[in-house]
Amino acid sequence: MSVTSAPESATLDQDARLRRYLITMGIRTLCFILLVVVDAWWRWFFLVGAAVLPYIAVVLANSRAPRVVGRVGTVLPHVDDVKHLRS
Question: In terms of Cα–Cα distance, which of 42, 9, 46, 1 is closest to 27?
Answer without folding.
Answer: 46
